[in-house]
What we know:
This protein is mainly beta. The protein is built from two helices and 16 strands. The strands form four sheets. A seven-stranded antiparallel β-sheet has the order 8-9-10-11-12-13-14, with no helix packed on it. A five-stranded antiparallel β-sheet has the order 1-2-5-6-7, with no helix packed on it. Strand 1 and strand 2 form a beta hairpin.
Amino acid sequence: VMPRREKTRSLNGLMFGDRTENGPVSRIDLIERPADVDANGDLVKAESLRLLFQSGKGGFAMRKRSEVSGPPEVVDSDRMMEAIAGSDIALFDLMAPYVFWPHFKYEGRTTFRGGPTHLFWMYPPEEDALMKAHVSGVRLYINDQFNVLVQTEVFDASGKKAKTLSIIGIERVDGQVIFKDMDVRNDKTRGKTRLKIVDAEMGLRLPPSLFEPQSLMDNLQRQSINVGRTEAFEPVE
């Protein structure tokens, strides 16, 4: 997390992802405060933010803080724009619901970072009044050669650019290309947060229970997760 003219800080986390018939689903633990020992030598437990969300058809988001008792809470469209752990990243950025919005306009082709790129303007759903109160539209930059999303610009309700998400590094892992680094820049405060994938595995077979609300009641590190592997074949050109 790199606020403008303030000290940079780092947070660690763990993420599992899968895809259902309705779209991609993710389960994340973000360590907001690591475990520590106080002046008396007593253990101070870590505090984590646990997230569960699905994008696409029937998308939803839920969250739970480790230090707060009670069940997980549902995050509505209005609260999806809230910053996570004081960073420049919101649930809206992680879920990327705009990729699934049905109404869009093709803005043409341009050159971006030396390569041919298509621009699309995505309109928020008319029926989602809470979302429209925050977002007037989202511009997507899709690389023509690799057909991948390389940059996203989010515009607020007044039409001003509020945030820019840029893929700045990619890597091939287990035969699949994933992003390695993504910058999320707040165009209003000029602060920036870099989401960095330190280690990754692909082609995993994960239990469905991992992506159920009950999973949020405990930290990922303390859950018994039966991880298998699926066969994956690299495409031949």
